[in-house]
Amino acid sequence: MKDFNIDLVYLWVNGEDPHWQKKYRENSSQKFFGKNRFRDNSELRYSLRSVARNMSWVNKIFIVTDEQKPSWLKDNSKIQFVDHKDIIEKDFLPCFNSEAIELNVYKIKGLSERFILASDDLFVFRPVPKSFFFDSNGDPIHRLIKTPNLDNKVPRNLYYQNLLFTKSLLREKGYRFPEDVEPYHNFEPYKVSTIKKVHELFSERITTTIANKFRSSNSVQRFIYSLMDLPQDRNRLRTATEEESIYFSIADVEKVPDVLKTKRPFLFCINDDERSDQNSLAKFPQVLEALFPEKAIWEVEVKLEITPFFESRNSICLVFAPDNNYCKYFSATLKSLISCSKQEFNYDIVVLHTDINDYSRRLLNLELPKNFSLRFIDISTYLYTNFNVKDFNVRSYWSISTYFKCFIPLIFKNYERVLFCDADLVFADDFTEFYFTDFERKLVVGILDTIAPNLVNHPHRVRELRDLKILSPDSTYFNAGVILFNLNGIDRNKYQKTLKETLKLVLPFQDQDLLNFIFQHDVKLASPRFNFQNGVTIYNPQYLHQVDPAYAECYLAAFENPAIIHYTGSIKPWHDPYQKLSFYFWKFAKQGPFYEQILSDLMGKSPKQSNNKLKNFVREKSKVMFPLHSKRREMIKKTLKRIGLL
To answer: Could you tell me which CATH class the domain 6-291 is placed in?
Structure first.
C-alpha cells in the first residue's frame, strides 16, 4: 500500500431535537415523519468507538449535520463537524434528503482525496486494514450486491426507481457497467477526483437532485460514483459477503452478539427500519455498549441535572422508572396517587426511562390535576456515557431500569428530598407524614424488607449478605421499592465513586443489595404501612409464624391500614386478580387509559387461553389461599396466638 491519508465521513441527525423537528414541519406537508429514518439511538457513539478500536489508521473524521452536535462529544483534533450550510447552497436549505447531502460531501473543506462515507448505523467488529477499502494504487474497492435481472425483480419503490434512473443516465452517456449489481449498505470508499468528474458530466441532473429538500423521483444516487469507476477496472468489484459484512435489523438486535461471535465479519450494520419496536430499541444501546465498552478519547461525561418544576416549597417530588411496557400498570399507580393527593401540595412527578414512546406519554398525561406535573426524562445518554453497562447485572424480569433509582442523588439538583417508588405499587392513603419525616441525619428513609425479619430461617442468604458486607450487626436491610432520599445530606462525588465501585460486585438482589451496601449505616426505618409488601405472604401464607412478634404486629397493622401497597414478587395483580389486596390495583387501573389493554393481556390472546385463565381464577384453591383481607387478618392473629407469638 502506498502511504496516503484516508478520511471518514458520517452523515448524522438527531430527529428528537425540537429545533430540527420545527424546521422539518415548516418545510414538509407531512405532519409526522418516518421516525426510524431520523431517530438517534446513540449509534454514532458506538460506531466511532468501533472505528477507534479497529480502524486507527483513519486520518480525520468529518460529521456532516444540520446545526447539531451530540452532547457527549467534546472537541478533538481528529473529529470535525461540517454543517449543511458549509457544503450545500443556501437556496437548497434546509435539506432532509440524504441523497442530496451525499452528493455534496466532496465539498468538505480539508477532505482528503480518498475518503470513506458511512452512516452512523455501521460498525467495525474487528481490525480492518486500508487494503480492504483501497487497492495498492489507492483506488476504491467497490463491494456490491449481485441481483440478476434487477430491472424486473426489484420492487418499484422510490429507492429502486432512483437506482434504475441513475443507471439510465450512465447508459445515455455510453458507459458500460455490470447491470446485475446494486449498492450494499456499508462503509463505501471514494475518490474526490472521480466525484468531480461525475458532477461535471451530470451537473444539471445532480443540481436538480440537490434542490429537492426531501427524497423525490428521478434523483441521482451516490451509486453513480461506483458505477463510473467499474468500467475502468473490473478487478475492483467485489460481491458483498457475510464473511466481510453482515446486515441486521434492530428488531433482531438480541441475535447480534451470537452471530458476530460465530461469523466474525469485519463490518456490520444494525439498521433502524420499519420492524423496530420498543423492546428492541430499548435493548439496542445495551447490546452496543457490551460490544464496544471502551470510551473513546473524544467522549465527555454527560451531566444531567433535573430541577424542581414548582417554585413553591410546598411540593412533593416523586420519581418512578417504568419502561414502556410497564406504563399501563404505572397508570394505576398514577391514578391512585391522584386519589390520595391534597390540594395544598404540588406534585412534581419525574419518570426516568430509556424507551417510553410519545403515545404512552400522552395517555399518562391525560386528565392530570392542575397541581400535578408529569415529566419524562430519557437518561440513555447519561447512563451510557457515565457508566459501563456490563456492570449492571440484569436477569429474569429485572431490566436495567431497576437501577435508575440509584442515579437520583446524582441528577436531582436543588431538591431537599425525593421519594422514589416502584411502578408496581398503588397509594391507598395519605403518605405526606412519610414524605416529610425527619431524617435525623440519616441519608435515606426506607422500610424493612419482608425478607429481613425472616433471615434467620435463610442461612444461605445470611451468609451471602455477610460475605458481601451488606449485613453488619448495626445495619438494617430495607426494601428498594420505596426510598426517601435526603439529597441535602448526600455528598455527590463520594456517592458516585461508591456507586461505581459497588456496581462491580456481583449482587444477587441487584439494586436492593447495592443500596443496602451503600446506606447500611445511614438508613432510618419507617412504618411498613408506607411500603406494605405482599409478595412473600402470597407464596407462604404461614410466613408470619416464623418472624419476630414485634414485626408481625407492625405488619398486621399495616395490612389493615396500608398507605402504599407494593406488589412484590413476580406474580402481580394483572397476572392474578385474586391475590391479596389486588382489588386496590384494579380499582385504579379501571380509571386509567390502559384498562382495556390490561384486561386483554390478562385474558390471553386465544379463547382457549382465556377460558383456562378463568378456570384458574375461580378454582377453590384461590378462595382458600386468598380470602377477604379482614378474615385473613383474624386467621393470622389466631395462629400467632396459638404458637405464642402474640
So the answer is: alpha beta
Distance CA 63, CA 10 (A): 5
Question: CA-CA distances (angstroms) from residue 496 to 97, 385, 407, 490?
Answer: 43, 14, 9, 10
- Rg of the chain's alpha carbons, rounded to an integer? 30
Question: Whose CA is closest to 164, among 210, 117, 221?
Answer: 221
Class at the top of the CATH hierarchy for domain 315-642: alpha beta
Contact 73, 298 (CB under 8 A): yes
Least confident of 63-77, 360-374, 607-621: 607-621
Strands (E), 295-452: 315-320, 346-353, 372-378, 417-421, 425-427, 444-446
**What SS3 state is found at 13?**
coil
Instruction: Count CB neighbours of 593 within 10 A.
Output: 17
Spatial CA neighbour of 388 closest among 485, 276, 295:
295
Q: What is the pLDDT of residues 307-355, one digit of tens each?
A: 999 988 899 999 999 988 899 999 999 999 999 999 999 999 999 998 8
Strands 6-11 and 114-119: parallel
pTM of this structure = 0.70
Q: Is the peptide bond before 94 cis (omega within 30 degrees of 0)?
A: yes
Distance between CA atoms of residues 401 and 501, nearest Å: 19
Same fold, 6-291 and 315-642: yes
Q: What is the pLDDT of residues 78-116, one digit of tens each?
A: 999 999 999 999 999 999 999 999 999 999 999 999 999
CA nearest neighbour of 532 among 584, 487, 474, 455 = 584
**Which residue in this structure is represented by grid cell 441528577?**
411
**Continuous segment of H or E residues that includes residue 566:** strand 564-566
Per domain, the residue ranges of the chain are 6-291, 315-642
Distance CA 218, CA 164 (A): 9
